[in-house]
Amino acid sequence: MKKSHYGIYGGQYIAESLMMPILELEEAYDKYKNDKNFLEELDYYMKNYVGRETPLTFAKRLTDFLSGAKIYLKREDLNHTGAHKINNVLGQVLLAKRMNKKKLIAETGAGMHGVAVATAAALFNIECEIFMGEIDVKRQKANVDRMKILGAKIHSVSEGTKTLKDAMNEAMRFWTNDPKNIFYVIGTAAGPYPYPMMVQDFQSIIGKEAKKQILSIEKKLPNLCVACVGGGSNAIGLFDAFLGDMDVKLIGVEAGGKGIKTGEHAASINGGRLGVLHGAKTMLLETFDGQILDTYSISAGLDYPGVGPVHCYLNDTKRVKYEICDDAGAIMAFDILSKLEGIIPALESSHAVFVAMEKAKSMKKDEIIIVNLSGRGDKDLETILKYKSEHNE
Ligand SMILES: *Cc1c(COP(=O)(O)O)cnc(C)c1O
Questions:
Q1: In angstroms, what is the span from residue 117 Cα to ligand 1's centroid?
Q2: Rounded CA gap, 362 and 177, in Å?
């Protein structure tokens, strides 16, 4: 039996018309994932194009301010295109090239994944079409402009709630039109197998580097690693290297939006139920009858009603704890990190920073926390200003 499941989660719950391209992808990834030439090419672009390895920065002023555990930031914000997304995109696009695919398609919410895919499409001279909900097209105009400048075609999706999940539905439908020539680049550790595994593999470089870096700086492992969870790719990317180190606590942070009780959130593990979404069995936000609910978070990148199957499994086995940070907490962490460290974090990453700050306070001074700074906050300035004017800050 192939290992397409994580406990009861994952699998390939897809239309028959997608089985052919999914099996083709599975075969290709199996063939190349340990191929020397493939890994060398990926490594070359990671180093010379993305700018890896990214630093592990000691946040001295933040640490002093909290007077608890030492906080280190894994600087995925310094990657080309401004977030961790490019790690996964380059892996998938190099695979697409080897599979002789003629066109890349991708879904995007906040636009960071779309920009990364459009970037790789330009670099490797492949046609590129991006699916984005109509609402996101409006609220993420800067990223839409970036994708257009890079040469991508944008499909504004007006079905359903006109956001990320609808964009992903539409991309999967579009894929069935021409599976021979199209490669679908999924942006997070979700979707049908082998995507969750593939995305985890490509993002695992984050934790691999962080582990090596902390061992060289501190001569010991961290006590705690923290990352935000949308679909879960940056989180599993950091956690992967530490899963076997049982003394290292791992915390994933879901978007609490306006609070779990209000129903306006995006916390699929803490506030969801078991279902099937985008080809995988997973925890998700849906009604009792199985209709997908509207999600809400101040950070568009965490605003996804499902979550990668591996996280549901790690939650069940209690290897990773999943906590919540609401909008207000994220904004507070965003401000504090900007003022104390001169680093403007993405609103998504701010959720992880908030929980790390809370934990640090009650930890000893010789203990260590690593926070994944999944992206930079340039894209969020307008959102922040609007939030502050509405809350009289
Ligand atoms: C897309 C995005 C996320 C959420 O996606 P994951 O797959 O959960 O990592 C988090 N942070 C940033 C900066 C993003 O762009």
A1: 14
A2: 55
Q: Mark whether 287 and 219 lie in a shared domain.
A: yes
The residue nearest atom 4 of ligand 1, judged by CA position, is: 230
CB atoms within 10 A of CB 122: 14
**Within this chain, do residues 103 and 244 fall inside the same structural domain, yes or no?**
no
Is residue 10 in contact with ligand 1, taking CB distance under 6 Å?
A: no
Ligand 1 atom with the smallest distance to the CA of 346 is 13
Total domains in the fold of the chain: 2
Q: Which residues does the annotation mark as catalytic?
A: 85, 107, 374
By most ligand atoms within 8 Å of CB, the mutation choice from 233, 239, 380 for ligand 1 is 233
First-to-last C-alpha distance (Å) of the chain: 56
Question: Is 174 in the same domain as 131?
Answer: yes
Q: Model's pTM, two decimal places?
A: 0.98
Out of 141, 172, 199, pick the residue that ends a domain: 199
Query: Sorting pLDDT into bands at 50, 70 and 90, what band is 49?
Result: very high
Q: Which two tokens stand for residue 243?
A: 């899963």
d(CA 195, CA 235): 15
Q: Which atom of ligand 1 is nearest to the CA of 349?
A: 11
Model confidence over 88-143: pLDDT tens digits? 999 999 999 999 999 999 999 989 999 999 999 999 999 999 999 999 999 889 99
Q: Which of 386, 381, 357 is nearest to 82 (CA)?
A: 381
- What the block records as the tokens of 127 is 């046609």
**Phi, psi for 53 (deg, rounded to 5):** -85, 155
CATH number at residue 335: 3.40.50.1100
**Residue 41's domain spans which residues?**
5-45+85-199
CA atoms within 13 A of residue 169's CA, in its CB half-sphere? 18
